[in-house]
Write a structure and sequence with these properties.
Order of helices and strands of chain B: HHHH
Number of strands of chain A: 0
Structural class of chain A: mainly alpha
Distance between the termini of chain B: 35 Å
GO biological process, one term (chain A): proton motive force-driven plasma membrane ATP synthesis
Number of helices of chain B: 4
Organism (chain A): Halosegnis rubeus
Number of domains of chain A: 1
Largest sheet of chain B: none
Number of helices of chain A: 19
Family (chain A): Belongs to the V-ATPase V0D/AC39 subunit family.
Pfam families (chain A): vATP-synt_AC39
Number of strands of chain B: 0
Radius of gyration of chain B: 21 Å
Helix content of chain A: over 70%
Radius of gyration of chain A: 20 Å
Oligomer: heterodimer
Subcellular location (chain A): Cell membrane
Chain lengths: 353, 92
């Protein structure tokens, strides 16, 4: 995709105003406090009286219980992100559309995993989130295809095509999905950072900064996971290019040495945002806590960027992140309650800012 | 672009010259003409300022109807620029 393909100039004012309003209507901490004390059916009723009313009613005949909550959440997510794309024009549209291709990557991975694990096509179809750019028709054909080879063939024209074809040989040789999934992620992040203008203006610089932060956080998370698990995995296999925190060689060295890795992050530009998370990692020796803190830090960083530069793509991307978090949080609550976890346990799983 | 401007100017200049010859003391741009121009420029600037505010206000209103009054007020605030410029007309 090339910049400026879409007609018109970017209408930052309009989109930002609407997105901010939507953001402020997301569930806040007091809502979550209420939710963690409810059972699944109460959560469903709570959602029927909120933002999710339409989806809950529409899907109520097909699903029930926690499944209903989960599909209503996905459906609502898709609606909001489609709205954002509807409003945006010009370069703003390009940036948002690129970012939302994250859901294409998600869908492709879901299809591949589904086929690999032998799920039926309706099962896979239910788990897709149709907020990306892949057409419904293509998604339908992907779901119907019965082998991974077919999926890759169908995707050959899309941005995932080349990467997947390259990774397929590796998959055939080793029989594991990791190379395919990494290829999808890499293709997504490469697309995010491709065709950027050579002399970016203020708004474009902020977009780049935001994407770099996301790539950095992802690399950091992978590096820490590898370091912690102690498994003999080459961290470079999971490395995504385009961040500014570390390059491949540095990552390889740092992944074997968690302390140095943490020290490195503390000195970086993200030091302030991640300070709390890093302390948590030192104190609790708890990777899950750190990952949640990392999510919260990214959310906060996006928040800071969007407050500092209101007329840029940042408020929109911050909203996308916050909405995704909300969906993840409610899902965690509903699934947690279903499994009989206590409110305190569930609260540690939530990421709020 | 530049050539057009110079030809235009060189074709108009003699006219202005001859005009000033006829009524020897009146300048090309009179005081009231300049005042009118300033009001026009101020109106243009106000319009440009309202463009951004207006689109943000409409966006906010689309999400929440109760913001109509506030949005309207914020949108017309740059209109004060034109009022200030209008003062010039009375001063001249």
């Amino acid at each position: 995709m090339k910049l400026g393909q879409e007609d018109g100039t970017a209408n930052y004012e309009y989109v930002t105003a609407r997105v901010r309003s939507r953001r402020s209507s997301l569930f806040d901490e007091s809502d979550y406090r209420k939710l963690v004390r409810m059972g699944p059916s109460e959560i469903a009723r709570f959602m029927e009286e909120s933002e999710y009313e339409r989806e809950m009613n529409a899907l109520g005949t097909r699903f029930s219980g926690v499944d209903l909550i989960e599909y209503a959440l996905n459906e609502n997510l898709v609606k909001h992100f489609d709205d954002v794309l509807d409003w945006a024009e010009g370069e703003l549209y390009d940036y948002i559309a690129r970012y939302l291709r994250k859901f294409d990557a998600w869908n492709v991975k879901t299809v591949i995993r589904g086929i690999y694990s032998g799920a039926t096509s309706t099962e896979i179809d239910d788990d897709l989130i149709e907020a990306g750019e892949l057409s419904d028709e293509l998604l339908g054909r992907l779901v119907e295809s019965n082998s991974i080879e077919n999926v890759i063939e169908l995707l050959s024209g899309t941005l995932f095509g080349d990467a997947l074809e390259d990774a397929y040989e590796l998959y055939e040789a080793e029989g594991i999905l990791v190379p395919l999934e990494n290829a999808v992620d890499r293709a997504y992040y490469a697309n995010l950072q491709s065709n950027l203008p050579r002399n970016p203006n203020r708004a474009e610089k902020l977009y780049i900064e935001f994407v770099q932060a996301e790539v950095d956080f992802r690399n950091l998370r992978n590096a820490l996971r590898i370091a912690r698990s102690g498994a003999d995995i080459d961290p470079v296999e999971f490395y995504i290019e385009g961040g500014r925190l570390f390059d491949e060689d540095e990552l390889r060295q740092l992944a074997n040495n968690p302390e140095e890795l943490v020290a490195r992050v503390r000195d970086s530009t993200y030091g302030d945002e991640l300070d709390e998370a890093l302390t948590e990692l030192d104190g609790a020796q708890n990777l899950i806590g750190f990952e949640h803190a990392l999510d919260a830090a990214l959310l906060e960083y996006s928040h800071t960027l969007s407050n500092r530069y209101p007329l840029s793509v940042c408020p929109v991307l911050a909203y996308v992140l916050a909405k995704e978090r909300e969906v993840d949080n409610i899902r965690a609550i509903a699934r947690g309650r279903e499994a009989g976890l206590s409110p305190e346990e569930i609260e540690t799983e939530l990421v709020t800012v | 672009m530049f050539e057009i401007a110079t030809t235009l100017f060189s074709s108009i200049a003699p006219l202005l010259q001859s005009g000033s010859d006829a009524a020897s003391s009146s300048p090309a741009l009179t005081a009231s003409g300049a005042a009118a121009l300033s009001v026009g420029l101020a109106a243009l600037a106000a319009g440009y300022a309202e463009r951004g505010i207006g689109s943000a206000a409409v966006g906010a209103m689309a999400e929440d109807d109760s913001l109509f009054g506030r949005g309207l007020i914020l949108t017309v605030l740059p209109e004060t620029l034109v009022i200030f410029a209008l003062v010039v007309v009375f001063v001249v």
